[in-house]
Design a protein that fits this description.
Thioredoxin TrxC, alpha/beta
Length: 144
């Protein structure tokens, strides 16, 4: 059984979970709140490759600290993560802290949004979107 480390979105402690549990609700061993509860998971170099192997499609936003469009898009991304938590997993990758991932996926500007299915990149868009546009784009990627 493969284990990956993810940060609990509630208590920010690192928790080890099995890759099989990525499609289920897993409780944090420290705060007993659900880890995959519709909040985006902060991904990094050590857990990214395993997280995108989720049985559910994974939506990733690559973002930067001083990026105004990223800051505007963050609540939209979080709202979509909450609304679609049964169908999708959502990850956030800070490009300043994860330069290896930014280079691997050729991130030239932020925000950049990608969708992965079983570890394979399916689509990419290099801009922040309004909620309706984001939902429409996800539907096009996932259901076409």
């Amino acid at each position: 059984m493969k284990l990956i480390s993810v940060l609990c979105p509630h208590c920010q402690k690192s928790v080890s979970i099995s890759t099989q549990s990525l499609s289920n609700t897993v409780q944090c061993e420290y705060c007993n709140k659900p880890i995959l509860d519709g909040k985006p998971v902060e991904a990094n170099v050590s857990n990214f490759d395993k997280l995108i192997q989720s049985p559910k499609p994974v939506v990733v936003t690559f973002w930067g600290n001083n990026c105004s469009p990223c800051n505007s898009f963050k609540p939209i991304f979080e709202k979509m993560a909450s609304e679609r938590k049964k169908q999708l997993r959502f990850l956030r990758v800070n490009v300043q802290q994860n330069k290896v991932l930014a280079a691997r996926y050729r991130i030239r500007g932020v925000p950049t949004i990608m969708v992965f299915k079983k570890g394979k990149q399916q689509s990419v868009i290099n801009t922040a979107l309004r909620k309706k546009e984001f939902g429409d784009w996800l539907n096009d990627v996932l259901f076409s």
